[in-house]
Write a structure and sequence with these properties.
The chain is mainly beta. Helix content is 8%, strand content 67%. Strands 1, 2, 3, 4, 5, 6, 7, 8, 9, 10 and 11 form an 11-stranded antiparallel sheet that branches.
Amino acid sequence: MKKFMMMVAMAFATLTASAQAEAGKLTLKPLVGINVANITDGDGDAKVGLAAGAELGYQLNESFAVTAGAIYSMQGAKSEGVKMNLDYINIPILANYYITKGLAVKAGIQPAFKVKSEAKVDVVSVDMDGFKSFDFSIPVGLSYEVSDFVIDARYNWGMTKVLEGFDSKNTVFQFTVGYKFAL
């Protein structure tokens, strides 16, 4: 029984071991998840969409890393009978500070380029002009790394207006799971 308990403890320790990269290491992290997005100054409800892409990371030392990536991000809002779809390619550039091994607080900047804007009224889709092609946000969040898997939660705080003549900005909660590969 002692042997069995020792094996279970070792297996558990292996599973909970952090996968934080060593200083000077470069990593690639494909990721996928969901966005819970809305547009400020409107009466719409949050819209759930896909977030998928990859981030390149460089571990500067035990406590600090930088990452940059490209993430396809389905954003927008919805209200009664209308769904506003705003899709972007986000370019997050983040500083990651490790509070403890595996747990990081992150913040940075995120330019984004619009790839789609449409409104769906019931079942009819209409392309929307007037939405700006560039968006800028400040992402802040937390991530936790376990055995090369990374669970990430961010809030992307929109800084730029999404539509000419209105004060509306994007707000996005983003939850992703990724896997780090050493390069």
